[in-house]
Amino acid sequence: MTLIDRYLLQSFFKAWIVCFASLVSLYIVIDLFNKLDEFVTATELTGMSLPEVVGSYYAYQMVPIFDRLCGVIILLAAMFTIAWMQRNNELLPLLSAGVPTRRVLQPVMLGSLVMLGLSVANRELLIPQVALKLENPANDPLGEQAVQVQGAYEPNGILIAGQIAKRRERVIVNLTCT
Q1: How much is the pTM?
Q2: Is the pLDDT of residue 144 over 80?
Q3: Are 151 and 161 within 8 A, CB to CB?
Q4: Residue 171 belongs to what H/E stretch?
Q5: Cα–Cα distance between 25 and 19 in angstroms, integer?
Q6: C-alpha angle with apex 45: 146 to 29, nearest 5 degrees?
Q7: How far apart, in whole angstroms, are the C-alpha atoms of residue 74 and residue 67?
């Protein structure tokens, strides 16, 4: 790996981190203002402080946020990396020296593939592990409140329905199979 490759990879990951931090902070601020009443309700129910409730909620929500934004952030980081090279007149000397455009873009593509691999690992390994916590609404961080159950047909054509579900005990009240 040459010096320019390391420089481009470093620029790509710096741009990725800046884009990720700015988009996630924007997402959290907007979502926080929408759910502030629910967080206050959760502090009264659980006895936890407001920063603890908000922090625990968004710690788990970072996993699907990363999943939703990763592709867009990869594209933005790649564009910013190439635009910074163009702005600082670093791209023209490379192309004038006979370095093919594909060779210049190789480190950016490698960084993109690494981040896409992390996105796939996140989707396949991390999201299933935190799936139960992701279902908890902002006003019920511990998952203690009962929720409405919607009936569904299983492959044999049997309707499985219930009145409410208690997530903590994993019990469905008034379960019917017809």
Answers
A1: 0.79
A2: no
A3: yes
A4: strand 171-173
A5: 10
A6: 95
A7: 12
